Amino acid sequence: MQIGKMTAVVVAFLAGTALALAAAEPTKDEAVAMVKKTVAIIKAEGAQKVYAEINKGDNRFVDGASYVVVVSLNGTNLADPVNHKLIGRNMWEAQDVDGKFFVQDMSAIAHKESSFWYNFKFVNPVTKKIQVKDMYCEVVDAARVCSGPYRH
């Protein structure tokens, strides 16, 4: 019986943690602020140094459910503090569940605009569900620095 109670406590704790993280979803204003802060740090400290810090999960680039990703304009994921499997991977042909080539689309926009919003469907790392992601991006050093909330 003790194991059953302990399991129930662990499940409740994990569910509460997931809910707390989901509740901490960043606002669009927070996403813009995080991107602008990251771009300023890249300009001050250099891209390669900052990408390495982002990939380590440095707290300057992660705040609860809010984090930045950096993708080159040719589609290579340069920095991602949450999904390390994507670092160094070219995502040019990636499509969301609706068939949208989101990496290609964002790169095309980045060639025309220095900052922009874009939305696509992606797996939320907190909920593990496919959700619409509103992504704010700014272009710096032939890459785009992006962050944004998932819609619930």
Shape: globular
Order of helices and strands: HHHEEEEHEEE
Range of helix content: 25-40%
Poorly predicted ranges? 3-23
Strand content: 15-25%
Q: What's the main sheet like? A: 5 strands, antiparallel
Q: State the secondary-structure class.
A: alpha+beta
Radius of gyration: 17 Å
Major sheet: arrangement of strands: 4-3-7-6-5
Helical region count? Answer: 4
Q: Could you give the count of β-strands? A: 7
Distance between the termini: 37 Å
Average predicted confidence as pLDDT = 86
Description:
This protein has 152 residues and is of the alpha+beta class. 38% of the residues lie in helices and 24% in strands. The protein contains four helices and seven strands. The chain has helices spanning 2-23, 28-45, 47-55, 102-110; strands spanning 62-63, 66-67, 69-72, 77-79, 115-123, 130-140, 143-147. The strands form two sheets. A five-stranded antiparallel sheet has the order 4-3-7-6-5, with helices on both faces. It has a two-stranded antiparallel sheet with strand order 1-2. Helix 2 packs across helix 3.
